[in-house]
Amino acid sequence: MKEPEHVVFIGVDPKEFKKKHGFRLKHVIGLSLFCALVAVWALFFRPHMFGGPISNIAVSGNSMLPTYQSGDFLIVKEEDSYSVGDIVVYSIAADDVGAGRRVVHRIVGGDADGFELKGDNNANIDPWRPTQDQIIGQVWFRIPSLAAILVHLRNPVVLAIAIAFMTLAIILSPSAIRSKMWNWMKK
Hints:
Blueprint: H1 14-45, E1 54-58, E2 73-77, E3 87-91, E4 102-111, E5 114-118, E6 135-143, H2 146-153, H3 156-172, H4 175-186
Antiparallel strand pairs: 1-2, 2-6, 3-4, 3-6, 4-5
C-alpha cells in the first residue's frame, strides 16, 4: 500500500518508519495470539497433573474391543457427572488388588456412590465399584495407534535416530532457510 503523498514525516524516512514499527506490530500481534492460546490452554486443556480437567491414557489389552484397540491414545476430560453408557477412565482404589492402575471401561450401572463398569469385550462386570472421585474423566477423543508409536520414542536408539534426521534436515536444507533460522536463533 502506497503512502499518501500529502503526508509529511519530519526527519523520518517513511519506508524506514514503516519497516521499524511494522516489525514491532507483528511482534505485538504474535505475542497477543500466543497469550490468547496460553489462556485457552490454561482454561480448557490444562493437564490433570497441573490441576486441569484433561488427562490421557494409552490403551493396553483387549477389554474395550472393538471400540478401542491396544495402542490407542485416549484424551480424557473430567466431567461434573457421569451416567450409564459413558466410557470413563478410573483409578483402582488403594485398598484393592491392582491399586493405582487406571482402567478404561463403560459405565453399565450404579451411581456416584459406586458405578458398575464393564469392558465392551468382557462378559462380566468389573470387581471394582469406583466412586465419582475415583473417576479421572470421560473419554473425549481417541488417536488411533499413537500410544504404540510413542512407546518407540522412549527407546534411546530411536530417539537418537530421530534427532539425527532432524539435524541432517537442517544441515541439508537450502541456504536461505538455514540463514533465516540462524538469524532467528541469534536474536
